Amino acid sequence: MTGRADGSQRAVIRAGWRQLAARARPYRRELLAVAGLSVLLAAPTAVSGRLIAHALDDGFLIRRPATGLFWLGVLAEVGLVSAVLGAALFRPLTRFVDPFRDRLIDEAVTAGLDRALDRDAPAPGGDTLQATEWVETIRQLLASVLRNLHMTVSVAVGALLGLAALEPVAAAIVAPCLLASLAANWALLRRAVERQRRNIDVEEALADEVAAVFRARRDVIACAAEDAVSRDLARDIGAARDAHVAAARIGVLRSLTTGLGAEASLLLLLALAPWLIATGRLSGGEIVGAAFYVALSLGPALSFLVLGGTGWFVGLLGLLGRLDEALPHVRAAAGPEPSAPPLGPRPALAADDLAFAYSASADPVLDGVSVRIPFGAHVAVVGPSGSGKSTLASLLCGLRAPDRGRVSVAGRDLADLPPALRHRTVSLIPQEAYVFAGTLRENLGYLVPGASNAVLLEAADAFGLRPVLDRLGGLDAALPPGGAGLSAGERQLVALARTYLAGAPIAVLDEAACHLDPAAERAAEAVFARRGGTLIVIAHRIGSAVRADRVLLVDGGRIAEGTHDELLRTSPRYRELAGHWKEHHAEAPA
User: Fold this and answer.
1) How far is CA 162 from CA 83, 572, 582, in A?
2) CA dihedral in degrees (97, 99, 101, 102; nearest 10)?
3) Of 196, 217, 359, 528, which residue is least crowded by CB atoms under 10 Å?
4) 506 and 426 in contact (C-beta within 8 Å)?
5) Angle of helix 90-119 relative to helix 65-88, nearest 10 degrees?
6) What is the Cα–Cα distance from 212 to 214, expressed in whole angstroms?
């Protein structure tokens, strides 16, 4: 059991170091600047005790206050130099820490979204925790460790050098206490990292559980399951509490090592002071200078190392080790995306013998589906609710991997294309339009940075968004998160115009106009059809099928293919859908 625990601790530490080293590599210049300034900061500390000794022995203790004040003035100037050097640390520190944080946020958000797509579920609480609290905590810890590096390196080294120069015997008295404190702290370090990692795991598990309960709150109430759910949450909360208590106990033990190193060494030095003075090894001023080194330099440095720096470093390694596991595909794709030959201006889309099920025990949603969609085609996909229309759209766009078969674009496997090339070639607009906090300009043009007002307004006019622009105040009108203030249909118009501007040669509209009236839906499809690319419409109304060149009827895991008129003649299911539309003399859902 102990061997497994030690192995787990070492693995966490190694993973944290690996992440830190890999991500810090591009910032060597900034880190060298921090290290160099920290070395320079050792000098003021090294001379401070000697200056105090001179002020006492050569000034105040022999009734020469002017000389004493002179040496204290020199000490003040040394302190000013130290403050200037400390302030200079912030510039290279900022150039390292903020880009480090920004890149980590990008990777954590990307990984969370990819996992959500793989699970076909909203991003859980743990992924949100990684991209928000964990990443910001890493930034704060990293900045704290580097900003205070001189407290442990420059101050401690400078104080030891100054103490040794003042009197080697004094350094010999203090050093064993410091070494014993560091050894005790090192013995506790690995266990502290392991318990910090346990804290992270249980907090993510609790966040996942809370997110799941919140999503299912209506079901919980409908099934009168409040007590059972409360018991489950209480168990997870208890696990989080126990993990924090265990980590706090290690923290208490580590804090005791500070007393061994700092207070014990100072008491020992003061206890031996009469002997040191009587034997002529140290003067009264030098004793005060040595005590200054221990009490005001070595003591705070050791306290920072044990109570602050090591604690921050433990948290930093634990969090980076967790993200090392959470971002596996990001590690693999850390380098530049490999170049790929272009697909050509008129890529055709094909699916061969596709099969897909949502689990190994579930019936296949699609089975043996093959279809060829030449460039420039206008295709509608119709079928009963739950027949697999959206699943087919996800497969054609590469958002899901088929259990069998392949999807190809211009003859090349879609799964083998670099993500950026795949996204530039095939665009999917889902039913729930994504509108983020920002201006209308940013929402319309974020796939085409730098688009001019004329281009954006032309797209807005094409999709009937001009009244929205007039109502809100133009392209620079601010939208709150989720597009609050826009109707569901207006949000869909924003998403349609955004994808149109991106110019992908293949556009897939997955009920992307379901909140629009039939006339607006027809107009939106016409805009995409006129642009000359391929248009695939997952139909919400049968009218989309009437307008299409070809219709794919998804039913029972298979596809029937033909024109609207051909399917009316050959497919009872399609006649049923079309008959429902005719019966109501309106475009009914497909």
Assistant:
1) 19, 95, 95
2) 160
3) 359
4) yes
5) 30
6) 5
Residue type, 384: P
Q: Is 431 exposed, middle or buried (0-12, 13-18, 19+ CB in 10 A)?
A: middle
By C-alpha distance, which of 383, 400, 403 is closest to 545?
383
Beta bridge partners, 508, equal 428, 536
The residues spanned by each domain of the chain are: 2-332, 349-584
113/122 Cα distance (integer angstroms)? 8
Six token digits for residue 381: 């996909």
Give the helix ranges, DSSP H, for 25-89.
28-40, 42-57, 65-88
pTM of the model: 0.59
Report the interhelical angle of 310-326 vs 168-215 (nearest 10°): 40
163, 178 Cβ separation under 8 angstroms = no
Spatial separation of the C-alpha atoms in residues 428 and 512, rounded to whole Å: 9
Q: Both tokens of residue 569?
A: 């003649």
Tokens of 224: 């009168």
Cα(45)–Cα(156) distance, rounded to whole angstroms? 8
Whole-number Cα distances in Å, 292 to 38, 275, 299, 338: 20, 19, 10, 59
Per-residue tokens: 13: 């530490």
CATH 3.50.50.60 fits domain 349-584:
no
Q: If you count DSSP H runs as helices and E runs as strands, how many of each does the chain have, helices first?
A: 28, 12
- Contact between residue 330 and residue 107 where contact means Cβ atoms under 8 Å apart: yes
Beta-sheet strand order (sheet of 506-510): 426-429, 506-510, 534-538, 378-382, 550-555, 558-562
Tokens standing for residue 324: 């090392």
Tens-binned pLDDT, residue by residue, of the chain (590 aa): 444 445 455 665 676 677 777 778 888 888 888 778 877 777 777 778 778 878 888 888 888 888 889 988 988 888 888 788 878 877 887 888 888 778 877 777 777 766 665 544 444 555 565 556 667 777 676 777 666 665 566 677 777 777 777 778 777 888 788 778 777 777 777 777 778 778 878 887 888 888 888 888 888 888 888 898 899 899 989 988 988 888 888 877 777 776 667 777 788 888 888 888 888 877 888 788 778 777 777 777 777 766 665 566 666 666 676 666 666 544 434 444 555 556 777 899 999 999 999 888 888 999 999 999 999 999 999 988 888 999 999 999 988 889 999 999 998 998 888 888 888 899 999 988 889 889 999 999 989 988 999 999 999 999 999 999 999 999 999 998 888 889 999 999 999 999 999 999 999 999 999 999 999 999 999 999 998 899 999 998 888 999 999 999 999 889 999 999 999 999 999 988 877 655 554 454 45
Distance (Å) of CA 287 to CA 164, 261, 297: 13, 19, 15
Nearest of 573, 583, 509 to residue 547 by alpha carbon: 509
The architecture CATH gives domain 2-332: Up-down Bundle (1.20)
CA distance linking residue 402 with residue 351, whole number of Å:
10
Phi and psi at residue 569, to the nearest 5°: -80, -35
User: CA nearest 53: which of 393, 246, 291, 214?
Assistant: 291
Distance, in Å, from the CA atom of 473 to the CA atom of 273, rounded to the nearest integer, reads 79
User: Residue with structure tokens 């007393």?
Assistant: 259
